[in-house]
Amino acid sequence: MPRAASGRCMVDSSKLTRLESSMDAMGTTFSVVLYGNHRDKMEEAVIAAFDELQRLNNLLSIYRPASAWSEINRLAGQKPVTVSPEVFRLISRCLLYSRRSQGVFDITVGPLMKAWGFYKGAGRLPSQEEIAAAMSKVGYRHLCLDQARCTVRFDMEGVEINPGGIGKGYAVDRMMEIIRRKGFDTALVMASSSSIYGLGSPPDEPRGWRIDVRNPKRPRQHSATEVFLKDMSLSTSGGYAQTFRAGGRNFSHIMDPRTGCPAQGMLMVSVTAPRAIDSEAWTKPFFIHGRSWATKHKPKRLNAFFCEDGPEETWGWLS
Questions:
Q1: Dist. CA 238–CA 106, nearest whole Å
Q2: What is the CATH number of the domain that holds 227?
Q3: Is 250 helix (H, G, I), strand (E, B) or coil?
Q4: Per-residue burial over 258-292, b = 16 or more CB atoms within 10 Å of its CB, e = otherwise
Q5: Does 289 lie in the same domain as 176?
Q6: pLDDT tens-digit profile of 145-183?
Q7: For residues 252 and 240, is the Cβ–Cβ distance under 8 A?
Q8: Which domain holds residue 220?
Q9: Which of 131, 137, 193, 218 has the fewest CB atoms within 10 Å distance of its CB?
Q10: Residue 176 shares a structural domain with residue 245
Q11: Does the global pTM surpass 0.90?
């Protein structure tokens, strides 16, 4: 994959140069927008950010047999697997999200995704037997971590972990960290519309980087809300993104690990947070638990926009 799949450069009214580049990874398109005075240094920063993205794609991809994540899934049901400190910290962070979300953030939902046909598919209605079989392998408590030895083990075979709930957010944070280290203070990193981080403010907008959150009922026509990101991230999870209809009901790809079924009652949730890994992780608990739960359990410095499966007049930011 090219380091910069596309790129263009222009000069705005403030005489700063604007550079845009993009690259495909983790099943989506990552984009960088960068403002600066020296094009060569800007290109160097963008290349370094995409190099980091490629490293993480190789490290975390469940579609690459040689990745650290694939090795864990292949071996951890049989014996403890030694991992790098980075991977150990990331999995430990996932377990923290699981505990704080009362179990609805769960990186072990892979068997349920497969049962419902969302693993490389468009979705299907499974039997109760299939759901029960998948549920027996789902639950973050199946993960056993040994911090002293930096190992990961599953307490039974058939358990799988999937970084889909935090991988893009983590990559956005890492890419932005590299851009900062290169000396830039005005940039935007996007993993499509899934997770976005805005650093500083673009020259024409002191409030920050303006982001339109798509209307889940009319995504091509209207936005549900707008957000200005200034040293802040935004992540969005929508049940409309992957869905199928059966028996007169719509079923989304966002699984409730407590029931073994897709979550109901919510169309979309957007979360802002100081880090993209946090905003991405918390969209799922808020989507599954709903607004009332989020009001009581939302971590500090996070905010959330809810689009319930009802009248648009009821949508809004958590008060």
A1: 17
A2: 3.10.520.10
A3: strand
A4: eebbbbeebbbbbbbbebbbbbbbbbbbbbbbbbe
A5: yes
A6: 999 999 999 999 999 999 988 999 999 999 999 999 999
A7: yes
A8: 166-317
A9: 218
A10: yes
A11: yes
